[in-house]
Structure formats: structure tokens, C-alpha cells
Design goal:
mainly alpha, transmembrane, TAXIMIN_1/2
Length: 75
């Protein structure tokens, strides 16, 4: 049969980890907002923009976790 993109087992196993990464994503959003404000106040500090970039990675984390788990477990 053809390959199906539906992998419910991977989704269900990855769900607790996605919830944990969702909490980290909220923390990342707060860090991103604070880092963006600080980089606007003092544009000479390059570390604040790097901090904001790391926070954006944390915000994208739940989607990456679910995709990783669904790709690891076949139907």
C-alpha cells in the first residue's frame, strides 16, 4: 500500500513532550519580548539580539518535537 502521512502513535507518544516544550515555548516568548525591548533600547549590545534568536528557537520547539516523534514511529 502507499505511504500514509498519518502517524497517530507517534503523535500520542510525543504529546507529553510537546506539552513540556510548550511551557518552554512560553518562557522563550517572554525572553524574546524582553530581549527585543532591550535590543531596541541599546542597539550596541549584540548579545540581546542573540538571546532573542535563541528564544525564537524555543518558541518553535513544540512543533519540532511533534514532527520528530511522528517521523520516528511508523504507522
Amino acid at each position: 500500500m502507499g505511504e500514509s502521512k498519518c502517524r497517530p502513535l507517534g503523535f500520542l507518544i510525543g504529546l507529553p513532550f510537546a506539552v513540556l516544550s510548550l511551557v518552554l515555548s512560553v518562557v522563550g516568548a517572554v525572553i524574546w519580548i524582553i530581549g527585543s525591548m532591550l535590543s531596541c533600547l541599546c542597539p550596541c549590545c549584540i548579545c540581546f539580539s542573540g538571546l532573542a534568536n535563541c528564544a525564537v528557537g524555543l518558541v518553535k520547539l513544540p512543533v519540532k518535537v511533534i514532527r520528530w516523534f511522528t517521523h520516528q514511529i511508523p504507522c
